[in-house]
Design goal:
Helix content is about 55%, strand content about 0%. By secondary structure, it is mainly α.
């Protein structure tokens, strides 16, 4: 019979500064930047302020375009010449240009999708009850005991998710076509 291995309790190493080690690890981790243009030209050896100023992006918009200090606030027009004077040496101007091009293309299409369980719930309810939300609320598959208004809102969400709702309508259409072809 093999002997059981004894585990010794881990002791604290007083010679290591845990706070400093944590800061070192934290500094090494990559920063999550959702914008691909900024992420592509980001230099991890430089600070955030240095990186953004090289790209021509303001860290603090109030410092770039300060508000007038008068009682009457009039919109001030800053010409391109004045803007160029205020900008420090921009070393990566392509970042701002790429961001402007992407903004001109318009908003990206939002792909809203419901969880699979909600889709099954909505399709079942719509097939069985059509638009009768009170009956849907009383159904045994309504495990979360949603009220009729909550069921209605969930089905509205399902109808707003274009891809999933279109898939449901297509499958429903295919079923009716198959029924008609079998009857004839």
């Amino acid at each position: 019979m093999p002997s059981a291995k004894k585990h010794r309790r881990q002791t604290l190493n007083y010679k290591q500064n845990k706070k400093r080690l944590w800061k070192k690890v934290k500094r090494k981790t990559e920063v999550h930047i959702p914008c691909k243009q900024i992420k592509g030209s980001w230099d991890s050896t430089k600070s955030m302020k240095q990186n953004l100023s090289e790209m021509g992006i303001a860290v603090d918009p109030n410092s770039v375009m300060p508000l007038p200090k008068s009682n009457l606030v009039f919109p001030t027009l800053i010409t391109d010449i004045e803007r160029e004077k205020k900008k420090p040496g921009i070393q990566k101007p392509n970042v701002v240009k790429e961001m402007e091009v992407e903004a001109d293309l318009g908003e990206r299409e939002k792909k809203f999708q419901l969880p699979v369980d909600d889709v099954f719930f909505c399709t079942y309810m719509l097939d069985k009850y059509k638009e009768d939300y009170k009956a849907m609320a009383r159904d045994s598959r309504n495990a979360y005991q949603l009220t009729p208004k909550q069921v209605r809102n969930k089905i509205r969400e399902f109808k707003r998710s274009k891809l999933q709702y279109q898939k449901y309508l297509d499958s429903k259409h295919d079923k009716t076509v198959n029924k008609d072809s079998m009857e004839t």
